[in-house]
Amino acid sequence: MASVIKQDELIRGDASPQPVAFNVEDVQARARNYLEDARRQADEILANARLEAASLLTETKAKALAAANQEFEKRVQDSAQKLSDTRCKTAIAACEAAVSGVAESTTQWLATWRNQTVALAARIAEKIVRREMQDNDELLRVWLEEALVAMRDSRDLRLSVHPDDFAVAGRFLQQLAKSVPQAIDVEILPDPQVEQGGCIVLSNNGRIDQQLLVQLDRLVEQLTQ
Prior knowledge:
Layout: E1 4-9, E2 18-23, H1 24-135, H2 138-150, E3 158-161, H3 166-176, E4 187-190, E5 199-203, E6 206-209, H4 212-223
Parallel strand pairs: 3-4
Antiparallel strand pairs: 1-2, 3-5, 5-6
Helix pairs in contact: 1-4, 2-3
């Protein structure tokens, strides 16, 4: 049987005293229920806090991992880019060196080919001209006239020719005197060292060598420069 505590409470005024009853077991039950509710709410709050903490930790780890992966990928890309740039620069330098080498080789080959071609042409020209010189003396006249015209402002001209061309050179000088006045005063000197068919004109200002081989050498030098 539940215990009952009676307490007289005086009510002011004309009212007579009324007894008020308190059920101790009911109060204890309510207290236990309140305590259990508080514990349950605390457990729920703690559980939710743990879940939120775990979720936050997971999210933080994920973000940190993503940031680390991003930084790693960036470093890898930067390293790859640098390596690629280095390789590209190396490849470009190698290509430029190869192109330069090919161009240099081509230039050298062209120069060699040109020199050989000019030398061959000079030998062919020599043979052709010598055959022409055997048939007539016209080339001697042409070369003599060219030299006299080139030295028209010079005085005391002397003409050196091969002894076999002495008479022919004298006749040519007489013919040239009509167009080249200083030809009449040219002194003719026979010289066995002078190539037959050619001549050398000398003056106080210098000399012009009109021998075949000398002229061909001059021509080859001009063409191979």
